[in-house]
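Worked problem 6 (solution included).
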Amino acid sequence: GELNENVNNIIYTQTRKDLETCPSCEVQKYQDFFHLTQEEMNMLQTHMKMYGILRKCCGLQMSKHEMNRLHGCNSTVSLNDSAYPHCERHNLSNIELIFHLSPIPRIPEYNREKPGDCKRFRDKILSENLGFNGKIFKGCTS
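Solution. The predicted structure is:
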């Protein structure tokens, strides 16, 4: 059947757990699959690292821990916990600039992380009392 033919052509199955545990390890595996040079891998690693930080620290779908921190909530997760994004340690404006200058193409409608957007979204979240996906923030969550 068609299903069996497709299954036999699968080279690699990426799991969410592996991606969450070590995103850069998963991206490194792309080098052999796509025959990327070391320079291309370095670009891809930088791009994905910047994207990961922006995804967790900016926009209306930021980490719930960062959303809570932004609203002044006491953290319910240990700072040593891998779920805590440590957004306060990053220069988000600089990360936006590096991401924006990346030569790796992206679809602008789905990648709103152009320079200045992070601050704009953070200001909007606070001024309009927004939570995840732009819904009204209903208080601190764990």
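Discussion: The mean pLDDT is 84.
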